[in-house]
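Comment thread on ticket #2218

A.B. wrote:
> Attaching the input chain for the structure job we discussed in standup.
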Amino acid sequence: MNPLIRLIPPVLVRVFARPYVAGDSIAKALDVAASLWGERQCTSSLDLLAEDIEDRAMAERNLQTYLELLQAVASDQRFADDASRPTVSMKLSSYTTEPLDRGGSGAGAAAAVERIAARAGELGLRATLDMESRHWTDHTLELLDRLHAAGHRHVGCVLQTRLNRTERDLDRLPPGIRVRLVIGIYAEPESVAITDKRAMKERMLSCSRKLLERGHFVEFATHDEEFVRRFVDEVAPSAGAGPDRFEIQMLYGVPRQKLLTELRGRGIATRLYVPFAIGWSMAIAYLRRRLDEYPAMMFLVAKNMLRLG
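C.D. wrote:
> Ran it. Output below, let me know if you need it in another format.
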């Protein structure tokens, strides 16, 4: 991470990142999701920002928050059908005090996700296993296999194309699942990952083609207009995939509205990744990584603040 990003006080991180987080409650997250659908016909993927778990009580709180979130989504009359209903995205590190990236065992994470997946299935909702640093990749894919073996076909996963292993990981996915392709925001060593962002995006295209040809549903997640257009206009048609086989995903708060509107006009589904927090302190680690990955966030927010002032 850029050392300057680490030096920004948490209160300023929160100020800079506020436009990119839906709020500090389930209700606020659902209001954002309902607004996105009602005003733009754009769906959402809701994600609780919860990292650096200090004790079992925090891990249990995160689990209960997801169970409450699922019930709230299923009960919200603003989402009349599956086309409008948000999905939920979850990180395994939110449910353990022993994270794998710090040498821990990941104890409790899989059991918590299994409960969330089971409840999502009961309510007819879709869920996604998010990906974290390379330390979690095998653990996440093994859990995905177990979930699908148990009948939880509503659970998809994320693959990060910066990792050199990703093209091999395509071969171990359960058949026909949803796969969100991203370049990833975790800094990884050159021994396991490429560092050039354009190369990461080129790999997104090659991986997306393979996934479509194998019958998967692809969630193509990038803000790079060139690569969105290449995926939509070149990769998907060449793989014989119509708009029912993929969607374009971006981050809540990143200004690409013109492109998203154009895509929806072409019958292509769009979805925004909408993070929310219960306690803002839990979101700081995520927000620092976003600022490091997309430093322009600071300039965009500063410009908006000056305009409002």
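A.B. wrote:
> Thanks. Noting for the ticket: The first strand starts at residue 43 and ends at 48.
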